[in-house]
Design goal:
Elements: E1 10-14, H1 21-44, E2 48-51, H2 67-74, E3 83-87, H3 97-101, E4 107-112, H4 119-133, E5 138-142, H5 148-160, E6 170-172, H6 180-196, E7 198-203, H7 217-221, E8 225-230, H8 232-241, H9 244-257, E9 260-261, H10 273-292, E10 297-299, H11 314-320, H12 351-366, E11 373-384, E12 387-393, E13 411-412, E14 434-444, E15 447-457, H13 462-470, E16 478-483, H14 488-494, E17 499-505, H15 508-524, E18 528-532
Helix pairs in contact: 6-15, 8-10, 9-10, 10-11, 12-15
C-alpha cells in the first residue's frame, strides 16, 4: 500500500532581460547562478520553483527579451499563484509589466547584490514601474540568499504574501520644521515656474523600458512644465550638419582644460578620433536644438536608437550638465547659447530626473550654490570604515564640476562594445568630497512624489576606488556616497527608481538650506514630499 506525500507548494518564476541579444548572452550565467541559489532558499522553506519560460538554446539565454515575448509567457502563468520576478541583470520593465498588471496573486521582485551584475538596478526600475502602474508587490535582495535578513523576509512572503520593511527613515515634509525663509523661496520659485512655464525637450520617450521615467502630462502640466517631444532623427540630422572644424574646436577646448582621452586605432574595440568628432558634433547639435525649441532641459535616449547610428552620448551629456563647457554659437554665429550655465540634461530621457534637475538648478542658483546636478544609478554599495558607502555610478552624464580636479580629473574611455557598437567616449571621474542633497521624483497614484535627503561624498583610498570600479564598470564616473540616516535596506525598500539625483552645496549649512528650499518648492507645486534620513550622520532634523 503506497502512501502519498503532499506535493510541495509551488512558486512561479520569470526573468526579465535586456532588449539586446549580446547583453542577455553575456549576463545569462549570472542569472542562472542566482536562480540556483534562490531555488535552494525556497526549497529550504519547503517550496518548489516552476520557471514560466525555458532556456532558449538558439539565443543562448533564458530571459524574456521583448514585450511580445512577455505577453506570450504570461498567457501560461497562473494569475492566482504566487510569482517571483528574479533579476541578476539590468532588465527592461515593459517586457513583464503588462503581465504583472493583471496578476492577482502575490508578486515578489528579487535581486542579487552585485556591482558587476546589476540586478538590484534593474529591480529598482521595475519596482518604480510597478508603483506607477498601481500594482501591489513586495521586494527582496541578497548577496548570496543565505543571510538571515533574506531568509526571514522570504519566509514572511511565502506565509502572508507581503513583506514589511523598515521605511521609518522617510517622513512627510509636514512633520519637519521647514524654515520660513526656505518656505518663502520655494513658494516664490513655484509661482514663477507656474507663471512663466518651462519646457523639457524629450528626444523620444520610454528609453530602456523605463515606464517609471515617464511623467503623465497632466501631472507635469500642474507644475508649469511641458514636454517638447523631439525625435532622435532630428538630433542625428543636426549632428551631421555640424562642420568638422566646430567639432574639432570642442575637442581642443576639452583637452586644453585637461581632459584625457584614451584612444586607439580600432573602431570595434578602441575609442577613435572619428568617434570623438561625432560626439563633439552631437554636443553642438544638442545645444542648438535646445535653443531652437526654447528648452530649459533636454533628455537624450542614450542607449537606444542612436547607438546604431552614432557613438554614445555620454561625453555630450556630462558636458551639457557643466557650467564650464565649450561655447556653442547660434548657426549665424551671433549668439553664444546658454552662456555660462549648464544645458540641464536628464540621462536616458528620465523625465522624473529632468523635472528634478530643473528644480535643483533653480533652487541652487537662487541660493548661490553650485547648479550642476546629475542622476546616477544606485549601482551597488558596501561598508567602509564606519559608513555604508554607496557606489553611485552613471555612464557619463556626471558633470566635471563634481570631479576631483574638475576637467583635469576627467578621462574618456570607450564605451563597452557589448552595448555600443559605435563606441564613443565616457566622461569618467571621481566625485569630490563634499555635502550633497539627493532626491528622486516618482509617480504614484497618478501624482508626483519626491523623496529627498542629505548625504556626503567621501574620499576612499585609491585601491578601494579601483576595487569598486573593477567590480562595476570602470569606464564610468563614480561617486562614493553616504546617505545620512538611511541604511542600505531602507533605501532599497523605499526608493522608486534605479536613478538618484545628486547636487553639491558648498558646506553642510548650505546643503540644508538647499534641501529645505527644494522641498518647499516641490510642495508648492503640489508634489507630495518625504524628507529621508537625518541632517548629518548624527543629527536628526528635529
Amino acid at each position: 500500500m503506497s502512501t502519498k506525500h503532499p506535493a510541495k507548494p509551488r512558486v512561479q518564476l520569470v526573468a526579465s532581460g535586456d532588449l539586446r541579444l549580446s547583453a542577455n548572452q553575456v549576463c545569462w550565467s549570472a542569472q542562472a547562478a542566482m536562480e540556483t541559489a534562490l531555488g535552494a532558499a525556497l526549497a529550504a522553506e519547503g517550496w518548489s520553483v516552476v520557471r514560466a519560460h525555458p532556456f532558449k538554446p538558439k539565443e543562448q539565454h533564458g530571459f524574456i527579451a521583448g514585450q511580445r515575448e512577455g505577453l506570450d509567457v504570461f498567457r501560461a502563468v497562473d494569475p492566482d499563484a504566487p510569482l517571483i520576478v528574479a533579476e541578476a541583470v539590468w532588465q527592461y520593465s515593459h517586457h513583464v509589466l503588462p503581465g504583472l498588471t493583471t496578476h492577482r496573486a502575490p508578486i515578489l521582485t528579487v535581486a542579487n547584490w552585485s556591482g558587476q551584475w546589476p540586478g538590484l538596478v534593474g529591480m529598482l526600475n521595475l519596482n518604480g514601474s510597478l508603483t506607477k502602474a498601481g500594482v501591489r508587490y513586495s521586494s527582496l535582495w541578497s548577496e548570496d540568499f543565505t543571510d538571515v535578513f533574506f531568509r526571514t523576509k522570504l519566509r514572511q512572503w511565502l506565509k502572508t504574501g507581503r513583506i514589511s520593511h523598515d521605511t521609518s527613515h522617510a517622513r512627510p515634509l509636514e512633520k519637519i520644521a521647514v524654515p520660513a525663509r526656505a518656505t518663502r523661496l520655494g513658494e516664490r520659485l513655484a509661482a514663477e515656474l507656474r507663471r512663466d512655464k518651462a519646457i523639457l525637450g524629450v528626444f523620444d520617450e520610454g528609453c530602456m523600458g523605463m515606464f517609471n521615467a515617464i511623467i503623465p502630462d497632466h501631472a507635469l502640466h500642474a507644475c508649469g512644465v511641458f514636454k517638447e517631444r523631439l525625435s532622435q532623427s532630428a538630433l542625428y540630422a543636426e549632428t551631421m550638419r555640424v562642420p568638422n572644424a566646430e567639432a574639432d574646436a570642442v575637442r581642443a577646448w576639452l583637452e586644453e582644460r585637461g581632459m584625457k582621452f584614451h584612444t586607439g586605432p580600432r573602431h570595434a574595440t578602441d575609442l577613435t578620433g572619428a568617434q570623438l568628432r561625432l560626439q563633439c558634433k552631437m554636443y553642438v547639435a544638442a545645444v542648438r536644438l535646445a535653443d531652437d525649441f526654447g528648452c530649459d532641459a533636454i533628455g537624450i535616449q542614450y542607449q537606444q536608437g542612436l547607438k546604431d547610428l552614432l557613438p554614445a552620448s555620454d561625453l555630450v551629456e556630462g558636458t551639457l550638465n557643466n557650467s564650464d563647457r565649450p561655447p556653442v554659437k547660434s548657426r549665424d554665429g551671433k549668439r553664444v547659447l546658454y552662456a555660462g550655465r549648464p544645458v540641464t540634461h536628464f540621462n536616458e530621457v528620465d523625465e522624473c530626473a529632468g523635472l528634478d534637475g530643473l528644480l535643483t538648478q533653480r533652487v541652487h542658483a537662487a541660493l548661490g550654490q553650485p547648479v550642476e546636478n546629475t542622476l546616477h544609478d544606485v549601482r551597488w554599495g558596501a561598508p567602509y570604515g564606519g559608513d555604508y558607502v554607496w557606489v553611485f555610478l552613471i555612464s557619463g552624464a556626471a558633470p566635471p564640476a563634481h570631479f576631483v580636479g574638475g576637467w583635469k580629473g576627467a578621462e574618456g574611455f570607450r564605451q563597452p562594445a557589448m552595448y555600443f557598437p559605435n563606441g564613443g567616449s565616457t566622461l569618467r571621474g571621481i566625485s569630490k568630497q563634499g555635502e550633497i542633497v539627493w532626491s528622486r521624483i516618482y509617480v504614484e497614484g497618478e501624482s508626483l512624489r519626491m523623496d529627498l535627503g542629505r548625504g556626503g561624498v567621501v574620499t576612499l583610498p585609491a585601491e578601494e576606488t579601483e576595487r569598486r570600479w573593477q567590480g562595476t564598470t570602470p569606464q564610468w564616473p563614480i561617486m562614493h556616497a553616504v546617505t545620512y540616516g538611511v541604511g542600505r535596506d531602507q533605501l532599497m525598500a523605499k526608493h522608486q527608481a534605479n536613478h538618484i539625483q545628486v547636487a553639491y552645496a558648498r558646506d553642510a549649512r548650505a546643503a540644508d538650506a538647499c534641501l529645505f528650499a527644494k522641498a518647499a518648492f516641490a510642495r508648492a507645486l503640489g508634489v507630495t514630499v518625504n524628507v529621508c534620513g537625518t541632517r548629518s550622520r548624527t543629527t536628526d532634523w528635529r
